[in-house]
Amino acid sequence: MKIAVVGGGWMGLVLAHKLSEMEGDHQISILERDSQLGGLATYYHYDSFYWDKFYHVILPTDKDLLDFMADLGLEDEIRWGQTLTGVYVDHQFYSVSTTKEFLLFPPLNLWQKFRLGLTILIGSRINNWRSLEKVTVEEWLVRFSGKKTYEKFWKPLLLAKLGSSYKRVSAVFIWTYIKRLFEAREDSSARSEHMGYISGGYKTVLDHLEKSLSDQEVQIRLQSLVSQIQPDAKSGLQMKINGDLEHFDKVIFTGPVNVLHKVADPTLIAIEGKPDEVEYLGVICMVLVLKSPLTPYYVLNIADDKIPFTGVIGMSTLVDVNETDKKHLVYLPKYILSTDSFMKLPDAEVKSMFFEGLRRLYPDFDMESVISVHINRAFKVQPLQVINYSTIIPKVSTLHPDFFVLNTSQFVKGTLNNNSVTSHVNHFMKIHGKHFSDSTVEVLNTGSND
Ligand SMILES: Cc1cc2nc3c(=O)[nH]c(=O)nc-3n(C[C@H](O)[C@H](O)[C@H](O)COP(=O)(O)OP(=O)(O)OC[C@H]3O[C@@H](n4cnc5c(N)ncnc54)[C@H](O)[C@@H]3O)c2cc1C
Q1: Which pLDDT score, from 0 to 100, does residue 62 have?
Q2: Does residue 255 line the site of ligand 1, with CB under 6 A?
Q3: Å from CA of 16 to ligand 1 middle
């Protein structure tokens, strides 16, 4: 059976790995349009070492992701560390890394702190997220925390994660954030943040995956753009790959829904809703390789409208500098709508604006410390989860028994990360896995987006 997985991002790779472990006579191919595997989780050559193109960490609560890493034999390569989270507000830096620091957060008075704690408690107790979809995250947070606490604590966090688009995002966003991060903090014995990474970064993971897939005779086809998917005359499907038609018995598509809409023949899918109306957040990230550390915080959220980036990620506060050629790695991300003209500004302009912001944040910043500067962009990071997103999200059902769709645009209540992507694949395999085994006689005609 010839099976194609379209997309060699984390979703496609985990899926291909799970398929390759199934019994049966399969020929699995991964079709990836880029020249490198990994999608958003890929790696980058920072001149003298490789590290993640965008910053990635693992949380102790990322159970499905950790199980998958163990499955790959990478259990012993996980490094855990304690990290700090900071907030820059009123031109001062504050650590909010432990429950104590969090409760002592000086910009807030006792009453405001109480309301902050209460908001987190309320958020972590909510189970029915649907009512949260009807209200903006700003409205919800101001309601429970008050305006001052919102401005000084929550707004910097929203800006760091969503850029100025946060104004249109629903309260489901903060609910999932509270659940993921604060529950992780509660889990750790010291009640402070523990984060993890794989020695060598995602390059180690991707190299391992590539080897294990090749050992299972999975074909990894890079620079392979799928531009058309259509039913084949007898059975299965035909795909146009770099302009040439090729037959597959089954196809699983893992790219964004608006790409699916363009490449899939209308007889293959029914899309309820308007995929072109799903807005995607993009990210533009200036990455600095430095001689000396810039920040003690893994994440610094910024409450200052004059600073063009929305956070500072001090990767080397977690990652041993021996992993990065004894150099310090800092990411300065700015999240914006993928259609925003800022995404297309020339690198030189982005650098000049970001360095100006950096000097505002750290007046003593020493340019002599800069070894190299890199501008990385991603246009489709995640759909903007606006008010009532679950009702406007295009509902995709597949109309052909051999065509399946599995992508992150269907996530309505989960934060987007490699743990939720892995869980999504596990769920897919539980429901649909049997259709990829040669011994199966039954063929179900269903979509795959549950
Ligand atoms: C700045 C940033 C920080 C992050 N931090 C974390 C973190 O700390 N922890 C964490 O767990 N996660 C993090 N993530 C999220 C994580 O990277 C994503 O959840 C994950 O990579 C999504 O994988 P995916 O396969 O669904 O999508 P993608 O990575 O977008 O993969 C889709 C793939 O499909 C390919 N494709 C699309 N169309 C076609 C076509 N027509 N033909 C062939 N190929 C095609 C694309 O080239 C791409 O490689 C972060 C992401 C970003 C951007």
Answers
A1: 92
A2: yes
A3: 15
Q: Is the CB of 333 under 6 A from ligand 1?
A: yes
- Burial (CB count within 10 angstroms: exposed 0-12, middle 13-18, buried 19+), residue 155: buried
Q: What is the pLDDT of residues 99-109, one digit of tens each?
A: 778 778 888 99
Phi, psi of 226 (to 5 degrees): -90, 120
Does residue 419 surpass a pLDDT of 70? yes
What domains are defined for the chain? 2-51+202-276+391-436 (3.50.50.60), 85-187 (1.10.3110), 279-383 (3.90.660.20)
Contact 65, 58 (CB under 8 A): yes
Which residues are CB-neighbours of 50 under 8 A, at least 6 positions away? 43, 44, 200, 201, 203
Length of the chain: 450
pLDDT, residue 436, reads: 85
Which of 231-236's residues contact partners 24+ apart within 8 Å by CB, and which partners?
231/265, 231/267, 231/268, 231/400, 235/402, 236/2, 236/402
Of the candidates 74, 87, 101, the one whose C-alpha atom is nearest the C-alpha of residue 150 is: 87
CB 198 within 8 A of CB 51: no
Which atom of ligand 1 sits closest to the CA of residue 418?
11
pTM flag (> 0.85): yes
What pLDDT, in 10s, does the model give residues 9-32? Answer: 999 999 999 999 988 888 999 999
Q: Is the CB of 32 under 6 A from ligand 1?
A: yes
Distance (Å, whole) CA 97 – CA 190: 11
**Residue 442: its pLDDT value, please?**
35
State the sign of the Cα–Cα–Cα–Cα dihedral 394, 433, 30, 266: negative
Cβ of 408 closer than 6 Å to ligand 1, yes or no, is yes
pLDDT score of 155 more than 80: yes
273's tokens = 């809703």
